[in-house]
User: What shape does this take?
Amino acid sequence: MIDTCQFFKIIKMRKDKILMIIGSLLLLLLFVFPLWKITLLAPQYPEPLGLNIHITHLSDGNQFNDVNNIDLLNHYIGMAHLPTKINVNKGVVEPFKEFVIIPIVVIILSILGIIFGFIGKRKLYATWLGLLAISGIVGMYDFYNWLYIYGHDLNPNAILKITDKVTGEMMAYQPPIFGFKQMLNFQVYSYPSTGVYFIVAAFLFACLAFYLNFKKKEKI
Amino acid sequence: MKSIFAFLTVAVFLVSCNPAPTSSKSSKGALTGNAAEKVYVAPGQYDEFYAFISGGFSGQLAVYGLPSGRLFRVIPVFSQDPEKGYGYNEETKPMLNTSHGFVPWGDSHHPDISQTNGELDGRWVFINENNTPRIARISLETFETEEIIEIPNSAGNHSSSFVTENSEYVVAGTRFGVPIPQRDMPISEYKGNFKASLSFIKINQESGNMNIAFQLRMPGFDYDLSHPGRGKSHGWFFFSMYNTEEAHSLLEVNASQNDKDFIAAVNWKKIEEYIKAGKGHKEKVKYAHNTWNDDTHTATSKMENEVLVVNPQDVPGAIYFLPTPKSPHGCDVDPTGEYIIGNGKLAAAMTVHSFTKMQKAIADKAFDGDKYGIPIIKFEAVNYGTLEQPGLGPLHTEFDTRGNAYTTFFISSEVVKWNVKDLKVIDRHPVYYSVGHLMIPGGNSRKPFDKYLVAMNKITKDRYLPTGPEVCQSAQLFDISGDKMELLLDFPTIGEPHYAAGIPAKMIMDKSQKIYKLEDNKHPDAVKTEADTKVVRKGNEVHIYMSMIRSHFSPDNIEGVKVGDKVFFHVTNLEQDYDVPHGFAMIGAQTAEMLIMPGRTATSVWEPKEVGVWPFYCTDFCSALHQEMQGYVRVSAKGAKTPIKYTLDDEVPGEEEE
Assistant: This one.
């Protein structure tokens, strides 16, 4: 802690400002680390397949070519192709708009946060926290929506067509947004990944900045 | 019942040649209760060791697990393998090319794993082909044969393919004396005219590529086995030999007359210096050098035409003969490099030579004349001692880390454990029956992993359920961790198991390749996506560039092929997932099926002879839709006007959908 205090003294900047700026910068790490990870385990896949969801693309979660291998398996149940570069180039799937929109939102949030940090006003911190929270909620809703679409919008010519015993309707394969679900031979696990922890950290940094700023005002 | 049992026990005593076994073993090597536990590898668990056991006259190399004795894979090396397409498809056919043309089979003998500092390093395993002299190198990442080099001026490539302490060389010696160069001459003029070769093959430490550095032109004796010096004797190689009588007929009698034959001690470092000075002479020869390019996964065969020959007489101090009774078979060097063991197969004794004594004898010139200019060291001057009457017909010896040797006795059908320094027998155990080689993982290195011993037997008789006159080949696993050897397991093997090489599984299992990356596939006829698949006619050749992925071929409907065409199926497996090979089989194909690994391309030739619509399919159960993985080739009459047409789901692959 002493080191940190000394650091603050050296750069001669208010703690709340620094925290706000660092918090905003943390968001940029979303360009490096995945947001979410879906893991698929099956008898034939003792070493599970992994799907990393980034704000810009999908990546192999565990081993080389996991994304393409999951995509390949999906065709048995008639699931739509994943929005990978290869599939978009082939024209078998529309490019994923979120891979463009979310990065812009992240950059805007980050820049706004830095500016707010330099200005150092409590109200601005609160505004930023609000914007981040709204973005997060909208993002999660959008994610859920896509999982629903992928799980329900199945090719009627699918190779495996299994009907639900209860409803008599074609079985849906909506992956869980959080937690575990058994889908045919696959155990599907879905959990936040490193990126989400950075968002949470950014949120906490901004909260702390708000709190420190609040205390400073009281002192005066 | 009891009396029969007792009788059998007595019978075993009676038929065991002298001396009688020191410990009483129950008939048929009945096991103690916990032997089953010791070899039981629970479902899903891994074996502790890999064992690479030669496939003998199958020409292949088989991979087993120890202690379970389970067979994992047969690596095709010197023989065609229709199951994998090896030696049948266009890519692998050049691997079996020789100076005699295409040779579809081989007789594989002695696998040996590469070493660094005298210890196993798990890079490659080498194995020799006895019949048409060749040495192969197999990758321990892909478990595929990567290189085969033919040995010129050689016949019966038996005292091979053992590596030096740092894998500087792999050696190849001849079992037959032959006229060199080959020529038309009377067989009866063998003596003094027939010669033999000991070849030192340099190994490139990066690529593993082999090149014959030099050949020693030796007297026409029969060079049987060999082993490298290690530690203090590094730089030397020891070759056993028989038929120093130079008999050319009825060798079983005529080559068994001399009381002592020799072990040749070759100072290869001295020969290296000689060569470095620009000496030795080049001879015109012809031998095939076949290499596998991993990028194009295609073999090429190059005919080499020159070899550097060194006459031992020209390099004083390079070769000495160590007198060794009687037609020694195995020639084994202990982990310290001090003791050189001659397994005189017709003697009832083991001869132990001392490297230290040998050096002193050379310094003192304690010679007993020479043979063809090669000095013979006096027996007493090199001999450390003799283990008298350990059994009958010693063939091979391996070592543990505790100063003990384990020797196989073919005639008395047993393995004998003895202390090298004390020259005393510690334990003996019968084998079923007539054991040849034995193997302790790392037993031919400075660092044996001395937990198990595998005895490889020549006769099986009543050990397994009978299968007609030809019964299975067999190996037996012993636990050698204690004072007494304990027989744990019998397991059948392919071909005739000659030598084997074992290595702890953890040294190689993690680098075992899972898939080949499609992006690294540089095969000229590969397709990287379904959109690239096509059919092209070039004269009477039809080239089908086909892809396979779960679970269909692209294209799967092909028309425009005619009787008399030569059809090339260039098939690429687009999978990039572990353990998803696809197979390819075409009705009436006179080549073989092909098993194609993820990311690889292979080419099968088919020459349709009849008009019709002929099916092809995937032979490897690849997915739930494997049975649907099939297609058709329409074959029209010679001269028909049917145009080339190829589709998948009634669309031309790669064409934009309307």
